[in-house]
Structure formats: structure tokens, C-alpha cells
């Protein structure tokens, strides 16, 4: 089945009600659960070329994070809306519904989806069969010098008072950061699918502003630094948990000292594919094949 057409992907979506809001997700296949998590400013659509490669290897569950894709926006009176903690609550609620009690999970994660998946795994260590990750948040970022130089000033701008204009008015994360972090040129059809949840200026675009403001850089915000440090230390110390590091070349946020750090994690396989940050847009099929080979290798029990 080809899932590359946005309309075809949308037709696959199912919905669950979590904490008074509707969350969208795609479910494909049968067998052991494989949860694929996107980040900012994308949606489950990012995984459209990966999922077909996993046919016959498990039940792929591909959510749209709350406020993104076809999942509901949160009301303005929710003061915690779109923070990491709030996203975690919605993801927990969704997985409680779509997974059987105690059901083990393999995660395939990217960007902020990696932080959510790593954190879930740390909190549910007995339920995680393995974790595949790419362009991930693997530990707190010590200093702005460790953030990619080409985008440093832009991300500092997002975290300043200017961020409201840059994102809520000008939609810069979708219009500039996304296409600028893909090696090929995204088609207008693809761009329109990513624009679709954020068409209206203002509140609808808030998820894409809160995510860069939650990045754990130079000690801020302190609560996110603590969460990321906890799962980072757990992953670095946990033997017996199979990991697949899909290294992007040239990559964007997971290179330099961050990449060398995650390469020290035990029980890890590494593969390299072409890509910048939104690696699935350049190497979706290769990523899917790498995950499939890893799943079939016998590394993961069950």
C-alpha cells in the first residue's frame, strides 16, 4: 500500500478521546506494538514512508501529538497547554487506550517524540522491548555552542519575546525551519499537509512555539533539564535494552558532542542514512528498512 499521498494517510486515521480532547492516530498491521512518535512541527504524516517497511513485523501505532496533525487544539484556559508535561499526559492517556494492559512496546522516535518516548520508557522499563531513534534529544544541551550554528540565532529568537511574531504570526517553524531541514525540496502538497493544522495565525500555532521554548539548553527550563537528564542517565546505564541509533548524515541536532555521547549507550546498533533533521523526508524507506532489519535480527526478545 502506498501511503505517500496526504489524503490517503488521513483516511487511515482513527480517534481516541483523552482528557476531554480527541487525539488522532494511524494503526497499521498486527502483532507486537511499535509506536512511532513525531516532533515539532510535524505529525504522523512524517512516518508515511517508514510504516510500509514494517509490514508483518508488528502493529504500528502512529499518533498525532495533541494540538498537532488532526488531534484537537487545547483551550486557552489550559495554562499548561502544549508544555512537555501536558504532552506527556496526553500521550500516556492515548497509549493507555490503544495498548493492552502491560503490553510491551518498541519505540521509533524523532525530535520531541524522542523525549516523550525516552521518558515513557524510563517510567515503564518493564514494558519496553527496544528503542530506535534519530535526530533525538539525548541529553540536556550544555550551552548554546552545542546547538547548530546555522539555526542558533533563530532558536534564540523563538525563546525571546520576538518568538510570538516569528511563529504565531509568520509561522516560521513550518515555513522556514521545516523545509530548511530537509535535503530535498518538499512538494507543495507535502508542505500543505504540514501547514494544515497551523493555517490560522495565533493560538493554533502555539504548539510550534512552545516546543522550542521547552528545549533543555544552558540549564533552562529547569524542569525539562531535569526530565531529560533523568532519562539520559537511565539510557546510558541500562544494559539489556536494545537500541537502534539511526545516524543522519549530515544531521542537525544529533551530532558533535551529543552524537558521541549517545554512541556510548550499551546494547546499541548504529546505521547511517542521508538526512538533515527531518530525516524521514529524505530517507524514509531506508529508515524503515533499518528498523525492520533490527527487529528481525533477533536482538529484540518476544
Sequence-ordered SSE layout with sheet pairings:
Layout: H1 6-11, E1 13-18, E2 21-28, E3 33-37, E4 59-63, H2 84-98, E5 105-110, H3 111-123, E6 128-136, H4 149-158, H5 163-169, H6 172-180, H7 188-195, H8 206-214, H9 222-237, E7 243-250, H10 256-262, E8 268-275, H11 280-296
Parallel strand pairs: 3-4, 3-5, 5-6, 6-7, 7-8
Antiparallel strand pairs: 1-2, 2-4
Helix pairs in contact: 3-9
The sequence of SSEs as H and E is: HEEEEHEHEHHHHHHEHEH
Spatial strand sequence of the major β-sheet: 1-2-4-3-5-6-7-8
**Structural class of the secondary structure composition?**
alpha/beta
Please compute the radius of gyration using only Cα atoms. 18 Å
Total number of β-strand segments? 8
- Provide the residue-averaged pLDDT: 96
Main sheet specs: 8 strands, mixed
Strand content: 15-25%
What is the terminal-to-terminal distance? 27 Å
In DSSP terms (H or I, runs of 4 or more residues), the helix count works out at: 11
Q: Given the C-alpha coordinates, what overall shape results?
A: globular
Question: What labels describe this entry?
Answer:
11 helices, single chain, alpha/beta, 302 residues, eight-stranded mixed beta sheet, globular
Please describe what this structure looks like.
It is a single chain. The chain is of the alpha/beta class. Helices cover 39% and strands 18% of the residues. It has eleven helices and eight strands. Strands 1-2-4-3-5-6-7-8 form an eight-stranded mixed sheet, with helices on both faces. Helix 10 links the parallel strand 7 and strand 8. Helix 3 packs across helix 9. The longest helix has 17 residues. It is globular and about 50 Å long. The two termini are 27 Å apart. The relative contact order is 0.15. The mean pLDDT is 96.
